[in-house]
Amino acid sequence: MWSHEPSRRGLLLALAGGVLAACQVRPVYAPASTSGSGTGPLAALGSIAIETQTDRVAQALVNELIFALRGGAALATPALYRLHLIVTERVTDLAIEAGSDLPTAKLVTITATFTLTENANGRAVVSDTVFETTSFDFSAQRFANIRAQRDAEDKLARSLATDIRMRLAMALTKG
């Protein structure tokens, strides 16, 4: 019985090694492909043109995406991809004061639906929806409420830009 045990272990180790050899692990933000067939996803992120927005919250997201994708640099020309965004915002009462029925906290939710398409052939590379939620205190001071909501929206725009950047990088890594 003991004489067969080492051969079974060796067989299991060889089998596990073969399975692991088939796996490929590489960083999402690799600077270039190892096969020499082109640029990596980090360079491709800099060639994404983002469609302009008219809403303040949507424009804040666009600005955060420009910084996240290109570090604030100009768009690489020619743009290889186009990013279409649909941004919606919802503000709801979160907590209500018992005696006055006035809100003491509000909840902000921003949802962004995006589609990345190739400019060369119009093929959709990835399409997805992301959302983030945060709260802010609501008081009797009008300016404080406006500022608190704007700060919450800006915080959500930064978080959404990070999430969208990761999803775009993963989609471009897959090819």
Secondary-structure blueprint of this entry?
Layout: H1 5-22, H2 41-45, E1 48-50, H3 56-70, E2 81-96, E3 103-118, E4 124-137, H4 142-174
Parallel strand pairs: 1-2
Antiparallel strand pairs: 2-3, 3-4
Helix pairs in contact: 3-4
The SS-based structural class is alpha+beta
- Count of separate DSSP helical elements: 4
**How are the strands ordered across the major sheet?**
1-2-3-4
Helicity, as a percent range: 40-55%
Record field, number of beta strands:
4
Shape type:
flat
Radius of gyration, CA atoms, in whole angstroms: 24 Å
Kindly describe this structure:
The protein is flat. The protein is 41% helix and 28% strand. The chain has a four-stranded mixed beta sheet, with helices on one face. The chain is an alpha+beta fold and 175 residues long.
Supply the key terms.
175 residues; alpha+beta; 4-stranded mixed β-sheet
Summarize the structure.
The chain has four helices and four strands; from the N terminus they run H-H-E-H-E-E-E-H. The chain is of the alpha+beta class and about 180 residues long. Helix 3 (about 55-70) links the parallel strand 1 (about 50) and strand 2.
